[in-house]
Amino acid sequence: MGDLMFEPEYNRHMPDDGKTPFVNLNKMLNVVEADFDKESLKQFMQRKIDVNDIAEQRVDAKTKEKIGKDLAAAYVVVKSGGRIQFAGMDRWIEKKGSHIPLPNHNIPNLKLQVADLTGSSIRYEGLAFLEGTSIKMLILRDCQYIDDFCLSRLYKISNTLEFLDISGCTLVTDNGLAALCKLRNLKGLRINDLPNAGNKALIAAYLLDENPELNVLGVDLPLDHDKEMPETSPEESGQYSDSSTNSSNKPPT
Amino acid sequence: MAAFVTKWKGNEKIRPGAGKARKMGKFFKESISKMFSLKEEIPRSTDLVIVGGGLVGSAVAFFVAHKQTNREREIMVIERDPMYTTASSSLSAGGIRHQFSVTENVQMSMFTTKFLRNIKFFLGLIDQPPPDVQFNHQGYLFLATPEKAEKLEELVKMQKYLGAEVEMFSAEMLKQRFPWLNIDGIEAGSLGLNGEGWFDPHSLLAALKQRNIGLGVRYIDAEVIGFTKKLSAPETIGNQYVLASVISRDTDGDMFETNCHQVVNCAGPWAGQIGELAGMGTETGALSIPLPVVPRKRFIYAYHCHNGPGISTPLTVDITGTYFRREGLGGMYICGASPESEEEEPSIENLDVDYEFFNEKIWPRLAHRIPAFENIKLKSAWAGYYDYNVWDQNLIIGPHPVITNFLLANGMSGHGLQQSICVGNAISEMILNADTYTVDLSRFNFDRIIRREKILEDFIV
């Protein structure tokens, strides 16, 4: 659906009056005319890295069909620098140099169970590998590109996911933690070192309300959370815009 | 010099646009008063004028500025309410959903979600933290009676085909997932699992405006009070003309003329008035049809509930059309509903809140659907305007057939927030003569109003 628009250098629209023979030259010049200060170059390089990562973390449908969803997912994880475990096996499988020790043909009944992407550059688009898998344990520790939208996308494995570690993902905010409510079978959650999630203790308490089996690590849970406002209580901060507020207990029938 | 410059024959009080001379005395008076005033001068000419600096106007400005090469078009956004006190953009409930019955509406919201997901790339400033719009990912839940459940299932299939992540749930599954829900009278529901939710519209607007200013877009604090017209070519088709300049009045009451090449109408609820100034609804033929967009007032009520629905609560839309969602982490919720008929539409004279509407229409229905809401405390309320398309409550986009350089982007009737980004992109594609359109919105052009055809949307909230 129009991914071209995310590529600034290819999507410049030139006014086409049919007279200039140097339209392509202008397009090239446009790239060269980018500001040459340190910050702009940094941004330009970062964009190149982003586009490259997204291309690397994708698996096309044909490959998926050939080797099966679980194996394709394993490929994405291992290629991105992570390690995996299949169901029924004890050892980790990870990249050795540039060699990926995974079979390249379909093996029936091979189930991906654990994926460890600590420190990897996995992206939102890269998380497409989750679809159709039955991952029980997912470690996204210190992933600098994992943000709230990525956590919302984890709903794909909500049926099987039992343990999630998102410590150190600096982009995650309170709203991302709230999105973990979709992981209805989660039993363990580790949320250390999330500097941008100021109310993580309160949100953990809310998650526990809905999922009593959940065990949250890395946070000091409030002993008796009472649905008070994080800063002020509703009674104190009641700002009435009109004096006729309705405080009776039953609605009119 | 006299051969190039035409003599200004307009209203004496309006400072003329570029290329028009006025008397020497007036010119000197202006220069001297300019020396002593601190306000920024409104340009005498520009390329693109965007009437309205809300989400739609800022999105149009952003996409044109972002895609064009070397600032070849000068963009000017005219906004009469620079603090956005009555702007629908800041007063919106902030919801974004992919569950629509019209396919283009689904695609437009999905585009906006994709944009927000990549907001760092589009609106991020170098070495600054990315703009945070506080996106809540809990999704929308639409409830259906037994009569409507089958239709809802078909629509969910259509939305999934377009890539939306939505699922049907039976009433029992809903009760299991959301124990606070009273499923009396409910057969099924559709829930957005990813990409839907709500966010803070003002943060998005501020981020857009900041990036626009960085890209060289001029924001002018003025009100558009008129346009001047000229024939578009020596041989015109019918009575086609173009808007040659826009006349605006700033906060001091001084009037300025600015020559322009294209004008985009992003005036939201007041788009009908801008259309009238441009000539819509005045003469004969296609020009006799006014832009069918009027302001319609809608209320949002904020209340507190001690034992209300928890953190996974989606923005829930009841079979009666009443909706509610969680607000923050302290047990606060907001709710609202559209009036059931034209007769019940509230007056648009001001933004005063009607609390009777809450007591009589909204609260009883909420309390029936969510029994925990029998005990709530109303904390505050506010009102805002929908840019309501009285014809078919859907977007009107594209150039006017007679006023050939006047682009419309109006009438989203409550969906402006979700569609603003995609509309901005679509208008930029029209302005920059793109080869292909990201989302093809040609069905929504003004011609359908002239031909008396309607595109109706089932999921209006």
List the helices and strands and how they pair.
The complex is a heterodimer of chains A (about 250) and B (about 450).
Chain A: H1 23-32, H2 38-56, H3 61-67, H4 69-79, E1 83-86, E2 93-94, E3 112-116, E4 137-139, H5 148-153, E5 163-165, H6 174-179, E6 188-190, H7 200-210, E7 215-217
Parallel strand pairs in A: 3-4, 4-5, 5-6, 6-7
Antiparallel strand pairs in A: 1-2, 1-3
Helix pairs in contact in A: 3-4
Chain B: E1 6-7, E2 14-15, E3 20-21, H1 24-36, E4 48-51, H2 55-67, E5 75-79, H3 88-91, E6 95-96, H4 103-117, H5 119-123, E7 140-144, H6 146-161, E8 165-170, H7 171-177, E9 188-194, E10 197-198, H8 201-214, E11 218-231, E12 241-250, E13 255-259, E14 262-265, H9 271-278, E15 293-304, E16 315-317, E17 323-327, E18 332-336, H10 355-369, E19 377-389, E20 396-399, E21 406-410, H11 416-431, H12 447-450
Structural commentary:
The complex is a heterodimer of chains A (253) and B (461). Chain A has a 7-stranded mixed sheet with strand order 2-1-3-4-5-6-7, with helices on one face. Chain A has 253 residues and is an alpha/beta fold. Helices cover 28% and strands 9% of the residues of chain A. In chain A, helix 3 crosses helix 4. In chain A, 31% of the residues are buried. Chain A has one domain: Ribonuclease Inhibitor (Leucine-rich repeat, LRR (right-handed beta-alpha superhelix)). Chain B has 461 residues and is an alpha/beta fold. Chain B has 2 domains: 26-91 and 202-292 and 392-450, FAD/NAD(P)-binding domain, CATH 3.50.50; 135-193 and 297-386, D-Amino Acid Oxidase, subunit A, domain 2 (D-Amino Acid Oxidase, Chain A, domain 2, 2-Layer Sandwich). Chain B has 12 helices and 21 strands. Chain B has helices at residues 24-36, 55-67, 88-91, 103-117, 119-123, 146-161, 171-177, 201-214, 271-278, 355-369, 416-431, 447-450, and strands at residues 6-7, 14-15, 20-21, 48-51, 75-79, 95-96, 140-144, 165-170, 188-194, 197-198, 218-231, 241-250, 255-259, 262-265, 293-304, 315-317, 323-327, 332-336, 377-389, 396-399, 406-410. In chain B, the strands form 4 sheets. In chain B, strands 2-13-12-11-5-4-14-21-20 form a 9-stranded mixed sheet, sandwiched between helices. Chain B has an 8-stranded mixed sheet with strand order 8-9-7-16-17-18-15-19, sandwiched between helices. In chain B, strands 1-3 form a two-stranded parallel sheet. In chain B, a hairpin with a 4-residue loop joins strand 17 (323-327) and strand 18 (332-336). In chain B, helix 2 runs parallel beside helix 11 (416-431). The longest helix of chain B is centred in the first third of the chain and has 16 residues, at 146-161. Classes of the chains: A alpha/beta (253), B alpha/beta (461). The interface between A and B is large, with 64 and 64 residues.
